Amino acid sequence: MDRVRQSIRTNRRRRTNAPLFGQLLTAAVESAADAVAVRFNPTGDPADQRESTYREFDEASSRLARVLIGRGCEPGAGVAVRLDRGVDWAVAAWAVLKAGAALVLLPAHEVPDAPTVPLGLTTGANPNDRIEWLRLDDAAISAEIAAQSPRPVTHANRTGVLSGSDPALVIGTTGVRMSYDELATAADHLRVRTGLTFESRTFQHGWPDSAATLLEVVSAGATGASLVVVPNSDTDLGESLAEEWVTHLIADRAALAAIDTVRLTDLRAVVLEEGTSAEVDVPELAEIVPLNELLPVVSS
Fold it and tell me: Residues 95, 273, 119, CA angle at the centre, nearest 5°?
């Protein structure tokens, strides 16, 4: 955790493109509030298919961001996130960034360290008692969040000044950090390199403590693309993703092995987290883009 603590405290006061990042995060809300932000199915039954619009997404994350700010989450502080990829994860990611704090992604066995990481977001049982955990499925916490204003979070709501060099993401396993400026740059690189648009549908499959998990959410918000969520129990990802018309797949080589990508006839880009393009079998029209070509040289 020393690397996480050092990463969060580094380079806190250079004001650069933070306001531009805020505009990037909510671009879809301003241009197409009723567009689908997340398509999800909790059971796999077609009758249970659900959607959440960018307006709903924005309001939910603003409410949660205000709760985080009220508990001391400010620029330079970290928020541990232990949530499965899904609606709660995406809302939590937006909320932490709106508060100006850093998402701290940790594997299940690693314990966050207070006071640099004073708070965590989870569901179910609290992972440990080293920090305060907000259980998003707890009735009292849900009521507290629902009571907050859904209006946009601005610099006037934060308790500290956000600068572009403040950390937006810290990977606990490596201590690698990505600043708000770096995250905005990476999201723009993904949009340009992969042709991500408001008509796109994305699916990230791989390690939950990867930079790709946050990059997907931010890039989708910047373009109005839809995030596709399928049940963790899904035994035929290829069929499910084909039925969801997924156009952009973000995965590592091991995760790709679980997907019959040839069946994804709508696929236009694969962002490969590790391995080489020669190892990947994808439809002819799909471009393979290594994740490390989208990311800046980040510090540790």
Answer: 25
Q: Which long-range contacts (CB under 8 A, 24 or more apart) does 250-254 make?
A: 250/202, 250/203, 250/204, 250/205, 250/206, 250/212, 250/215, 250/216, 250/291, 251/204, 251/205, 251/206, 252/206, 252/207, 252/210, 253/279, 253/280, 254/206
Beta bridge partners of 53: 36
pLDDT, tens only, 76-123: 999 999 888 888 999 999 999 999 999 998 765 566 665 578 899 999
In a domain, 154, yes or no: yes
pLDDT value of residue 109:
58
- The verdict on residue 206 lying in a domain is yes
How far is CA 243 from each of CA 87, 246, 250, 265, 298, rounded to the nearest angstrom?
19, 8, 17, 10, 36
Contact 281, 288 (CB under 8 A): no
- Determine the structural domain holding residue 126 and report its residue range: 2-293
- Mean pLDDT over the full length of the chain: 82
pLDDT value, residue 18: 43
Q: What is the mean pLDDT of each run of 10 residues along the chain (300 residues)?
A: 46 44 72 87 75 92 96 91 87 94 78 71 82 92 97 90 90 79 90 93 82 89 90 75 91 81 89 66 80 70
Question: What sign has the CA pseudo-torsion 14, 20, 22, 25?
Answer: negative
Provide the β-strand partners of residue 143: none
**Phi, psi for 162 (deg, rounded to 5):** -90, 130
- CATH at 132: 3.40.50.12780
CB–CB of 198/223 below 8 Å? yes
Structural domains of the chain, count: 1
CA dist., res. 46 & res. 51, Å (int) = 12
| Residue 300 domain flag | no
DSSP 119: E
In a domain, 77, yes or no: yes
Q: Are 98 and 65 in contact (CB under 8 A)?
A: yes
Provide the pLDDT for residue 114.
Answer: 52
